[in-house]
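Whether sequence alone determines local backbone shape is best considered at the level of individual chains. For completeness, the protein is quoted in full, as a sequence line and a line of structure tokens:
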Amino acid sequence: MSRTNWYALYVKSRHEFIVSHELQLKGIDAFLPSVKKMSQWKDRQKQVEHPLFPGYLFVHITPSPEEILKVVKARGAVALVSMKPGYPTPAREEEIISLKIVLESGGKIDIYPHLKEGAPVRIKRGVFKGAEGILDKKNDQHVFIVNINVLGRSVGIKMHADDVEAV
């Protein structure tokens, strides 16, 4: 019998909680990392549970065709994440354990895209939405740099890493 591993499951937009619930009903160990955030409506504010990684959750299964089929047949499931087509790529056990520890701590969590310094990025929200530049780091803080090549100059502003996306 193969060893069980954690796999990332890509799901339809806004189906994370539905898929997680359905998988658990099927007896599959599903982990949906989520955080509570304050949501604002016209007439009220409310704490709402949001997926930490929108569009993804984790399943703990053996990589057998039967188990994989059971997972991807769940309503709202799309596919297991794989680096090599047809072979789901397992997540490291230590990463999942660490993620659970961080979530259980109850501390404020910020999401950081896996971007390297010097990567071209675009701001995805706020007053600078749509601006493109380079991601840099200064004094342990992310900085969004706009280069004006013709002048040989750059300007930079401090940003939260979850406000930028790869170009």
Q: What stands out?
A: Helices lie at 16-25, 65-72, 93-104. The chain has a mean pLDDT of 86. The two ends are 43 Å apart (CA to CA). The longest helix spans residues 93-104.
